[in-house]
Design a protein that fits this description.
Belongs to the short-chain dehydrogenases/reductases (SDR) family. InterPro entries: KR_dom, NAD(P)-bd_dom_sf, Sc_DH/Rdtase_CS, SDR_fam. It holds the Pfam family adh_short_C2. This is 3-oxoacyl-[acyl-carrier-protein] reductase. Keywords: Oxidoreductase. By secondary structure, the chain is of the alpha/beta class. The chain has one domain (8-225): Rossmann fold. The chain contains eight helices and seven strands. It has helices spanning 17-28, 56-69, 93-121, 133-136, 142-162, 180-183, 187-196, 205-215, and strands spanning 8-12, 32-37, 47-50, 75-78, 124-129, 167-174, 227-230. It has a seven-stranded parallel β-sheet with strand order 3-2-1-4-5-6-7, sandwiched between helices. Helix 1 crosses helix 8. The radius of gyration is 17 Å and the shape is globular.
Length: 238
């Protein structure tokens, strides 16, 4: 895998926020990029593939489409995720199951399917988008934190299992990022969050994308099983 040759990159949840910035960064490098969404809206230059990652048949169909249109997936960025925040005593079984099924089990399905082609080609990059919350925890996010922490164990197990075939598996753990999700916070909430962050600001989605494209580049070829924080220092030490 070389930075000088276009690669086939699949980014899930790439229609907005962090996922869109990641897709756009790979497109800017000249890679052949496919984006999965549930409702469409991939960035210009990307193959737009409709996929619900909680449906195993939909995941298989998405990979089949990408392989037919662009070629075998060489870089997987498992970014799609949801939240269903509430305190633990109010958290329903459905709140728990929906979040874990999407964020953790969905990522497992994607990685398993991507690994089939990567093993045949004896190279590949798997990158999971986790969260600082998966390392620090957060009240009202037991389900989300558990799902995002699970990605770390998954990546490290894959790193050991697939490493002999030149396949790396890593995690990028963003902190607070300037997206639609944080835009709804009040000024007071935003100020309180920024006080917790040593750099005293939110991340730009492009800064998360930069970490992802680096892990997928030649420069990141010897990095596997790592958790790369892009959180302004919020989670340092974890």
């Amino acid at each position: 895998m070389s930075e000088t040759e276009p690669r086939v990159v699949l980014v899930t949840g790439g229609n907005r926020g962090i996922g869109r910035a990641i897709a756009e960064a790979f497109i800017a490098q000249g890679d052949r990029v496919a984006v999965t969404t549930r409702s469409g809206g991939a960035p210009e230059g990307a193959l737009d593939v409709t996929c619900d990652i909680t449906d195993p048949d939909a995941v298989e169909a998405a990979f089949t489409t990408v392989e037919a249109e662009l070629g075998p997936v060489e870089v997987l960025v498992a970014n799609a995720g949801i939240t269903a925040d509430t305190l633990v005593l109010r958290m329903s079984e459905d709140d728990w199951s929906r979040v874990v099924e999407t964020n953790l089990t969905g990522s497992f399905r994607l990685a398993k399917r991507a690994a089939k082609g990567m093993l045949r080609r004896r190279r590949g990059r798997i990158i999971f988008i986790s969260s600082v919350v998966g390392l620090l925890g957060s009240p009202g996010q037991v389900n989300y934190a558990a799902s995002k922490a699970g990605l770390v164990g998954m990546a490290r197990s894959l790193a050991r299992e697939l490493g002999s075939r030149s396949i790396t598996a890593n995690v990028v753990a963003p902190g607070y990022v300037d997206t639609d999700m944080t835009a709804v916070l009040t000024d007071e909430q935003k100020a309180a969050i920024k006080q917790q962050v040593p750099l005293q600001r939110y991340a730009d989605p492009a800064e998360v994308a930069g970490a992802v494209t680096w892990l997928a580049s030649d420069a990141g070829a010897y990095v596997t099983g790592a958790v790369i924080p892009v959180d302004g220092g919020l989670g340092m030490g974890h």
